Amino acid sequence: MKNVSIVDVAKQAGVSVTTVSRIINNVNYPVASNTREKVLKVIDELQYTPNKAAQGLKRKFSDIIGLIVRDVSDSYFGEIANGVTNRASELGYLSFVCNTGRNPEDELRYHYHLWQHRVKGIILAGGGFDQLDYKQKLENQVVRYEKYGLKIVSLAPQGIEIPYVMINDFDAGKKVTEYLIQRGHTKIGFIGGPQKIFASMERLKGFKVAIDAAGIEYNRKYIIISDFSQKGGYDACKSLMSECKDLTAICCANDNIAIGAMSAIREHGFSIPKDISVISIGDIKDAKYTNPPLTTLTIPHYEMGQMAVDVITQWKEKVEITLSTSIFERESVRILDN
Questions:
Q1: Share of the chain above pLDDT 90, in %
Q2: Which ranges of 33-150 would DSSP assign to H, the alpha helix?
């Protein structure tokens, strides 16, 4: 494959070389947003290496680690960020936290900017999107990183082959469901995360497998989709309870959903866990302060972030690490009488 030049980018994008240069160097010159997007798309498709990065190839990588998160205000990502930044600092590295706001296009732009600045490695937190265009672009980035020795580590499933340090999301969904079944529950609702997020999909699959293995009749009405927020959990739980009057327990795809769901349950005049038990996945800091304290599957967020930094700075081989999980029993699940 021939080396791609700035002229090739300009020709395919239908713009001048000067325009491409302005976009690459982010100079203070007005460029139409649609033109900018078109040029960045061509750069990605051609895997063009701008001069800044090309010159960097002759030197060592910078002492910077990039962390891309979906929502920096979410405790889940906050704990991961703490692990990453603290460990990076201990090892003498600077860390950048890039917040995408759960926007796939913003995420891909961060990949491009971090690549330009020759970071030591990129840590990708949050489940990938089941969208063909997104997966293809992410795969192109991973191929580029591998070609030049820049390391990338994912902390959640992305739907492509990529080094990872993460939990088994299918197993997580299965574990929390089995926990309820073992305590006599058969009328179990499930509030899942967004349908197109791989982590959400895997947790729902685990729920379904556990229900089927226990011989419990599958009822699609017991499953409702939310986003990963407390408001999303609140709204979804209200809808679920209005549709299904016989629930004794609810599995939530993450703790934020569970916190919102618990508010909705109390608002309906029900007691937790006397009337409805609640279990979730994550064990964020807020989980122990809910009323009652939330039983949840523990994800080692902080340690996951630390380990990702170690992988980028110290490991030479490609890694695929699945971390163990366990259920932290608090007070939100009741054992049903036979």
A1: 69
A2: 33-46, 51-56, 75-90, 104-116, 132-148
